[in-house]
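User: Fold this; tokens only.

Assistant: Input:
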Amino acid sequence: MKNFKNATPPSHQLMGEIEGTVQGHRDGHGFLMPDDGQPDIYLSSQEMHAVMHGDRLRVRVVRYDKRNRPEGRVLEILERRKKPIIGRLLLESGIWLVAPEDKRYGQDILVPKNAIANAAAGQIVAVELTEPPSLYSQPVGRVTEVLGEIDDPGMEIEIAVRKYEVPHAFSADTLAQAAKLPDKVRAVDMKHRIDLRDVALVTIDGEDARDFDDAVYCEPHKQGRGKTAFKGWRLLVAIADVSHYVKPGEPLDRDAYERATSVYFPRRVIPMLPEKLSNGLCSLNPEQDRLSMVCDMLVTEEGELHAYQFYPAVINSHARFTYTEVAAILGNTHGPEAHKRKALVPHLLHLHEVYRALLSQRARRGAVDFETTETQIVCDDNGRIEKIVPRTRNEAHRLIEEAMLAANVCSADFIAGGKHASLYRVHEGPTPEKRGTLQAYLRALGLGLGISDDPTPGEFQAIAQATKDRPDAQQIHTMLLRSMQQAIYTPFNSGHFGLAYQAYTHFTSPIRRYPDLLVHRVIKALLGEKKYALDAHKMEAANPMPKRPGKPSKVLPTPANASTELERWEIVGAHCSANERRADEASRDVEAWLKCRFMRDHLGEEFAGTVSAVTTFGLFVQLDALYVEGLIHITELGGEYFRFDEVRQELRGERTGIRYATGARVQVQVSRVDLDGRKIDFRLVREQDEHRLLRGAMRDKHGDRQDGKRPAKKQDRRADQRARREAAAAPAAAVAPMPMPPPDPPTAVDALERIEQADRALQGERRKSARATKAASTHPVKAAKRSARGASKSVAAKSSSAPAAKTTRRKRGG
């Protein structure tokens, strides 16, 4: 959904007719996403009665709001969404209906009794529409598939793949083609390849990895003499040659293009290629001959790429290492891990040396490098969360990352030099709107650091390094990340801002990413002095992507109807980018479901956490112990009116000045878990105490009543009087600050509580002093009144003092 916050002048003509796809919202309204890529058009909940999420419509722009956002009226429904809808079958008052899992549909689907397919109430089903909705009736459908009970192991994944339309079953033609592939590399497959089976290439992956698509090797290298002498390392990165088995236009290729990427869930992977390829022929398993494409590089001692070449090869991986194992060997070359792999330890040390050189070059280049905490979900045998642990990045992770980056850069340079169309991995800098927001934020912090109007990656990295030890470092780094654009696949090379590369592409994972497979085909074509052309008529996506802004078309673009080769590559890149986002959304949906299911067992428990994001409607808090995020709604922050400061990214109380910003420490209680909505709600603990502390903070902000000013409200005077009586009657120990648990830093609530307690102690001392000297009433408002009347009204002052003393005596005796 596009952001209208910084809306530009209207791009849609008033009363103009626009075609596009509707995207529903859980609150009932929706947005039309125009085919020409123009800004979305708002559709009210009334307009959404007769349409559903995913329908194609023609609408008319009827008005603009005060921020120039267009609002439309539905003229015609061009095409209904035909995909089955996943939801829970319910029986309410004798009526069967399906509540969609995807809340963007906005309305339940009625199911006739004879169309439930023997499903039971409460089960998860797939329903196909038989009657679309209208202005006066709900949609009607029939159950086509019964998935099972909501608590069945793996059900959350079954829901997600259908909810996000992730292809999860290979076609019969694809399975038949995969079955015909050989079980091992044949002699005929090794022709015209460099034999590297005697080179000690190794794979380094995670403990739970099943497909190994890259192997690495490094050795010191010297050549030449004098000024032209080279001294550094020879680095080999061998990547599985998927393009040898997956040919353009074949069933394997069609299914791979439709998926565009593998999708990773906890305990399950939906691969881009059948298992015979992804875990077999194309996986660089140890001590198995495998076909590969090799990027052979020379790296200087300064970490610069001196030269490179690509060639097809046959390799034999000498070992399968894990990141943990390699990190242990690099940390102790005489330890037990190193003893087991004694013959390969020198090669690992060479890899570490070239990694250190590449890392130094990365720093000089100014690439952005944020240290973020990633988490890993550990599940039990039933697929439920057992624990959530931080995923730590060690030297082995970074070693492989730098080697892959070097190979990807060489691939982009090779293709750009050959002037061949391909897909680049493009990451552009901040947009003008995001740049302005970030500049204002940095100025508000008073860091003395900022970004220019044409920022460079080095400026971002300088800010990250300068603030990494600050308490609000996480907040600052989050704002830096949010200011950047999302990386995409496109044939138009604009460089990679985050990595500070002028050209960058993806070459190293063709088993799980279709763009990498295309890059392999292009490199092979250039090596053979040929040209690779997309087989456009056989590349049909289930969800074609809209074209770029400014290129309207009545026909949804596909590679087959593109007018130029470059336009075909553009459409393929948009398809791959969209499917990458779809895979991420499906993975996040499953993780959110698992976390909600996990937190249901912790309802009512209290945890320490950190504010991870601030919005107009509340605070998102990540729990320290569980790495789970939830929302403290703004209504849970007490009876204060909060204003959202977009520049400082904080909520500020209008009366008290209390502030909540990203990075603030809070103590929360798990108050609600919505499994269907994938939401977890928190509330601040000691809510009543906090409400009382806000009044104390207000008194501190406006000053005590001894300054002659009247309190703003009668309730505040009464609250102050009660507070004074409590302070006078309480023993000395009662005014001591409330102790906090040692591990948790002071929160905003605790700070306000200490302020009020100190105020009570001060007022108590004043009362004791007044009684000791038998002075008149120390009530600040009445004292101010007496002072204002002056000597000319002394008689009136004396007459008013008697009832005041009488009132004081009544209060003490009451």
